[in-house]
């Protein structure tokens, strides 16, 4: 993990250096992807924590507000299509897996800055007492950190998030399966069950995030895209690196990882479209935990 962190740190420096020379496509936007936002005082040598500290997240949001318009995820594609003379890029904040720290750490920052975000939840794991079975970091380190760093939100916490008026709740499948090992029927069940449960309990389910999410690794096959569309979701995000444009497929929207090492200059460079250095880090991705 130290090597991986070093590579991402170097990519950040390169991104900032290249930013003045980047001219993003007019009318494009950026979807930032987060997972955990927790106070951690150690780095696991074996497993990526996919963590951004609360103070870093606060600084990232403050930096983004200086250069971009932070919009709800379900508005970013329309914003790109009708950008016209709008000069500031549109940015959407997304959070995968539905950890309790979204409620304890992220929501207060959203309220302080009055910005929207989307959290994607695995419906079979809502309110369960243990760490998600797919999250190796949480399974290993649950005894070293506050439970909000690894447990998932319950329905009450999701209700409070929605009541804020700043949060959209989307589906992240029902069981968080790897799509490259699933049949078409299993993928239909994953998408259909997640939306049915969210609709019955929360009354909304328009947005979806594919577990693991990398098309090049086989986690967004055509059968899954069709299943998500047939289930009634209106947009879906991948973990494919890139910016949203007017021509983007609404069921294969790309995202950019927001890393814990990203200071204000790095996060601004990412949003400005300086992504070339991250093609290398993207190739280091493996489906060893949530994504």
Structure description:
It is a single chain. This protein has 291 residues and is of the alpha/beta class. It has one domain (2-282): Glycoside hydrolase/deacetylase (TIM Barrel, Alpha-Beta Barrel). The chain is 38% helix and 14% strand. The chain contains ten helices and eight strands. The protein has helices at residues 2-18, 54-67, 73-81, 101-113, 136-141, 155-163, 184-202, 222-231, 264-272, 278-282, and strands at 29-34, 69-70, 90-96, 117-121, 167-171, 207-209, 235-241, 253-257. Strand 2 (69-70), helix 3 and strand 3 form a beta-alpha-beta unit. Helix 7 packs parallel to helix 8 (222-231). The mean pLDDT is 91.
Key features of this structure:
eight-stranded parallel β-sheet; alpha/beta; 10 helices; TIM Barrel
> Which topology does CATH recognise?
TIM Barrel
Order of helices and strands: HEHEHEHEHHEHEHEEHH
CATH architecture: Alpha-Beta Barrel
Helix content: 25-40%
Count of individual helical segments = 10
Let me know the largest β-sheet. Answer: 8 strands, parallel
Structural class: alpha/beta
CATH class category label = Alpha Beta
Provide the residue-averaged pLDDT.
91
- Please state the oligomeric state of the protein chains shown: single chain
Counting DSSP E segments of at least 2 residues, the number of strands comes to: 8
Strand content: 5-15%
Radius of gyration: 18 Å
The CATH superfamily bears the name Glycoside hydrolase/deacetylase
